[in-house]
Design a protein that fits this description.
Number of helices: 14
Helix content: 40-55%
Oligomer: single chain
Largest sheet: 5 strands, mixed
Distance between the termini: 43 Å
Number of strands: 7
Radius of gyration: 20 Å
Structural class: alpha+beta
């Protein structure tokens, strides 16, 4: 899925607000360094948009990516998923998430509306404490991308493809414009000029059982439902190096080699052979990606135990051993080096 850069130009400001240089981030993520210079003429993959938000989250420690004046500590979304009750249906999961996000955002911004034949997850951002540089168009795009992420989350929780069960999408946009990339995904009617943002399903999905409630290392809501959404269909047939595709997927979660091979639609043996032609290995790529993330989180001041959990290690000791292998020093020694 591709989105117009003009819809997410606020990302450039978010990057600068976090103290980073846009060109450096673009280079690090393998994106054009002039991406935001001609936004109306450029598009990027939705997965790359998520990677940009994830990078900002890791730097700021804020799940809202500094788009809100009220910061949301990293780990909030992970906690809400970890505290989902067992043996529940989608209705209860929706209600749990809506209530949880309302508590942490200190407002009634999320709610679930259910009638006899419909159930909707709604986000009403009126009164939300956005940062001053977030304009009305930015707010629409931001929440529409959250609605899309929430949909993928519901699919992942239930193990069902829910796209055919969507009745309509609601948005406060008054008219349909070219700058509405996140609305192009839906094969359902779009209702403009609504009082709030919402995704409305056939009411029968409310009874679907929650089957997959275990998530690891979630840094913000945008990552919540992405399972196999990391790579676009275009990526699967393009000449993009396999190394780069694996790096992009690992940016979301520390997947194992067999899981990565399945994700890429090939056997482990084929993946190994192709990586050998690129003079690397899955283990090398994974270590490099994890090390870069580890260094960023240490620079941000995160505790070693927290970093270990975020990167998928069983405990701080296992993470420290890996870090020493990567850098010839302990995480604590690396941390001391960063202090001016």
């Amino acid at each position: 899925m591709q989105i117009s850069v003009s819809d997410i130009q606020f990302i450039e400001t978010l990057v600068r607000q976090s103290g980073m240089q846009p060109q450096c981030i673009m280079e690090e993520l393998g994106l054009p360094t002039d991406l935001f210079e001609t936004p109306l003429a450029r598009v990027i993959e939705f997965a790359d948009y998520i990677r940009l938000l994830q990078r900002i989250t890791e730097t700021t420690g804020d799940e809202t990516c500094s788009a809100s004046l009220r910061q949301l500590r990293v780990g909030t979304s992970q906690y809400l998923l970890d505290t989902l009750p067992t043996g529940i249906n989608l209705r209860s999961a929706m209600q749990h998430l809506a209530k949880g996000y309302n508590v942490v955002h200190a407002g009634e911004f999320n709610r679930v509306i259910e009638t006899k034949k419909r159930i909707s997850y709604c986000i009403d951002d009126q009164g939300f404490p956005y940062a001053n540089f977030i304009l009305e168009h930015d707010r629409h795009s931001f929440i529409e991308s959250i609605i899309l992420s929430v949909h993928f989350l519901f699919c992942r929780l239930t193990g069902e493809e829910l796209l055919p069960r969507i009745l309509r999408i609601l948005t406060p946009r008054t008219v349909s414009t070219e700058r509405a990339s996140f609305l192009r995904f839906w094969g359902a009617p779009i209702i403009y000029g609504a009082d709030y943002h919402a995704i409305e399903y056939d009411g029968r999905v409310a009874e679907l059982e929650i089957k997959n409630a275990k998530f690891k290392s979630i840094t913000n809501i945008f990552e919540l439902g992405f399972g196999q959404q990391f790579t676009s269909d275009d990526d699967r047939i393009s000449p993009v190096s396999l190394t780069r595709r694996i790096e992009k997927a690992l940016a979301f979660s520390a997947q194992s080699q067999p899981v990565m091979a399945r994700h890429l639609g090939m056997s482990v043996a084929t993946m190994r052979r192709r990586l050998k032609h690129e003079n690397t290995s899955f283990r090398t790529i994974r270590s490099q990606v994890l090390n870069r993330r580890a260094q960023r989180l240490i620079n941000r001041g995160d505790r070693i135990e927290s970093i270990a959990r975020t990167l998928g290690f069983s405990d701080a000791r296992s993470f420290s051993r890996a870090f020493i292998t990567w850098n010839d020093m302990t995480p604590t020694a690396f941390q001391r080096q960063q202090v001016p």
